[in-house]
Amino acid sequence: MTSTGSQTRAEKYFEDGFLGGIEVLSPEETAAHRRQLEDAERQIGHALHYHSKVHTVLRSPFELATHPALVDVVEEILGPDILLYNVTYIIKEPQTAKFVSWHQDLTYWGFDGTKQVSTWLALSPATATSGCMQMIPGSHRQGLHEQVTSDDPDNVLLQSQTIENVREEDAVLCPLAPGEASIHHGWTIHASRPNTSADRRIGLNIQYITPGMCQTKVKTDSAMLIRGQDRFGHFETDYPADEWLPDDAEERLLVSTRKYHAISGSPNPA
Ligand SMILES: O=C(O)CCC(=O)C(=O)O
How many whole angstroms from 179 Cα to the centroid of ligand 1? Predict the structure, then answer.
């Protein structure tokens, strides 16, 4: 088990509710994965942004989500049996007002447990200026908070869900160099500000769960076993992209995203 000073990474994660600065990709690999995304964007526009299960239509996010340097940290936290649940690009264009309000991830996903982690892998600089994530250390130990919903077009979250009266003075920034990742617990309160930098802020959000988790909101849900064994069979199987964007990539992304929105109770994308 890898350590950070006298604590293991897992101990630090369970104390703070998140870990930053996990080195995953070399500068060359980061540039190559950014290029793949931007080539795909040239083909299907913004259909890749904020849509679910991009790893089922594009090889690059699948390779990133299964990168050993990332999955090793996930294993230290979740144990040996790991399902890949969702992969989503979260992109804030330069000089735009898009932000993420204070929230917890596990509120709407319908899981019956908390054996889940979110990782966020930077394909460009995530800094205070470009709107990197901010976390409230230890907030994962407070359980779930009430979130109010609204319809703010600049809020990246589907229902602009917001935890009110967060003590912002307790927040710590979680900056990431390109190729680095952070990992956070589904109850950790976090947010991010607009990107006021000159570059795009490109992040890949990757959700992992354990096979024992159950979906309680809909009859069927899907995931992909990426390490260990699934002794439960609670999820149908997602398949990784094995080719450059298939012809029906946009349609498939829309189907996955509609399903995700149905689970989270959000309005469906057009
Ligand atoms: O990309 C962001 O700024 C926020 C992402 C987020 O909320 C998450 O990864 O859980």
Answer: 16
